[in-house]
């Protein structure tokens, strides 16, 4: 199944679905939010297919495809043009103010395709009004990109965005208005260290990766609360450069030497909580065959069954529940004996 993403649009106030009270709430699947990729739109057929699969595997799943514009065409354009800080703040406000997704009422699951994956991670880190259980990303760019993608012959929106960069990826206007530039990462070719301009000017990726000297502690705290953070990388991905960014790896674009996440400072010093997640078994690295977003239903089904659906009790919770049941039977038996006496 090749994704190109979507679901019908409602006026913004009514766009979010609403869960209905359920006496058996513990068996109800957690709500699922989906953030699509570059050039896609929330109302594309691919997203509708994903939502349908979610409900086939976990009946009753409340699915919300994230949108940052009032119609599909504008939403697609907003994947190239816009300010990620503003977009994430708007999504945070929308979800936090809806009882079906707010942390005051429920945890939720999150599924990100391509750039939507790092946007969802940014949302997890920056938005106190939601509580995400599982974050699953496919072909995302968690460590940024080293090169901008090539545009299709007739993709004028893409060409317009790339033309606006014009070798000035870290200019104030570009960082505030061109989406791919906000997760572009520049490193010194000799040392492999991030450039000063990148660290000072990056509007998004340097911030959510806590690469600057002053770390935002809340980012680490919020990401570390995840039960699962699963990252899928496509084996033959030629769109994301480097593809290993999907696992937070650093790649020297000259020697092609790969430095894996666990060998990097972001992990060893636990800048954003990845080490903590790994230590509790919540950090998952997986491959998917094929090129960028050549996503099979088999792989997607595996992810849905492993990470989404109803809340799962921990071993401690299951043991406590069994002990409580035994104690209740003991109390009932004691009461019967007492009454007979």
TrEMBL record:
Pfam families: Palm_thioest (PF02089). One of its GO terms (molecular function) is palmitoyl-(protein) hydrolase activity. The keyword Signal applies. The keyword Signal applies. Keywords: Disulfide bond, Glycoprotein, Hydrolase, Signal. It is an enzyme of class 3 (hydrolase). Its EC number is 3.1.2.22. It comes from the Eukaryota. Belongs to the palmitoyl-protein thioesterase family. Residues 1-15 form the signal peptide. This is Palmitoyl-protein thioesterase 1.
């Amino acid at each position: 199944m090749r994704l190109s993403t979507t679901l019908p649009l409602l006026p913004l106030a009514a766009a979010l679905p609403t869960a209905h009270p359920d006496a058996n709430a513990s068996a109800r699947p957690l709500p699922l939010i989906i953030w699509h990729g570059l050039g896609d739109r929330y109302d594309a057929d691919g997203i509708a297919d994903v939502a349908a699969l979610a409900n086939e595997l976990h009946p009753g799943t409340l699915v919300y495809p994230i949108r940052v514009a009032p119609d599909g065409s504008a939403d697609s354009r907003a994947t190239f043009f816009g300010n990620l800080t503003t977009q994430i703040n708007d999504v945070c406000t929308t979800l936090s103010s809806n009882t079906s997704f707010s942390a005051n009422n429920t945890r939720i699951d999150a599924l990100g395709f391509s750039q939507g994956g790092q946007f969802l991670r940014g949302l997890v880190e920056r938005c106190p009004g939601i509580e995400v259980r599982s974050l699953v990303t496919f072909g995302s760019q968690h460590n940024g990109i080293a090169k901008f993608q090539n545009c299709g012959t007739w993709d004028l929106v893409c060409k317009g965005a790339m033309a606006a960069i014009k070798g000035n990826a870290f200019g104030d206007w570009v960082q505030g208005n061109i989406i791919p530039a906000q997760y572009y990462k520049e490193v010194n070719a000799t040392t492999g260290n991030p450039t000063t301009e990148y660290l000072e000017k990056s509007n998004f990726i340097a911030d959510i990766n806590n690469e600057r000297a002053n770390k935002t502690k809340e980012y680490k705290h919020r990401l570390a609360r995840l039960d699962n953070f699963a990252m899928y990388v496509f084996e033959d991905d030629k769109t994301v450069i480097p593809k290993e960014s999907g696992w937070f790896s650093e790649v020297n674009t000259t020697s092609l030497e790969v430095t894996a996440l666990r060998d990097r400072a972001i992990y060893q010093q636990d800048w954003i909580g990845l080490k903590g997640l790994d230590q509790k078994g919540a950090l998952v690295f997986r491959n998917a065959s094929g090129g960028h977003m050549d996503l099979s239903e088999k792989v997607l089904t595996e992810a849905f069954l492993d990470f989404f659906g109803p809340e799962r009790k921990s071993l401690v919770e299951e043991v406590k529940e069994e002990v409580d049941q035994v104690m209740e039977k003991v109390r009932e038996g004691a009461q019967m004996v007492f009454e007979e006496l």
